[in-house]
Amino acid sequence: MTDYNSRFGTVTDTGSDNVLDFEAIDPRAAMQSHRTGEQHEATVVFYAASDITGSVTPKLQHSDDNAIFTDLVTGTTVTNPKAGNFALLSMPKTHKRYVRAALAAAQAGITAFLEPGSGQPRE
Length: 123
Description:
Structural class: mainly beta
CATH topology: Jelly Rolls
CATH class: Mainly Beta
Largest sheet: 5 strands, antiparallel
Shape: globular
């Protein structure tokens, strides 16, 4: 189950519908930790509603002011992804206040959300 506050929404080459606000970092917090005092592993899931023809490169962008975004991490390019989850990006523990999902090039029908955990299969 995904909380609305962890959804990036529709993702395009100009960014996602929703920008996640991690709020100001407490100056007393160690290691760039956010409000909870520590930041656990999290994964950004990119989802295609239907099969896509072409290449898709997912990425995350961050910003101090929610206006000017720069690339935070870029995922592996996926060619002709099928409907469903097609890409997982580990959420970096160090980032600026605002984070959004984006694509390296325009593509329709893609959404993204943040979920707890590393996104790696458990043994």
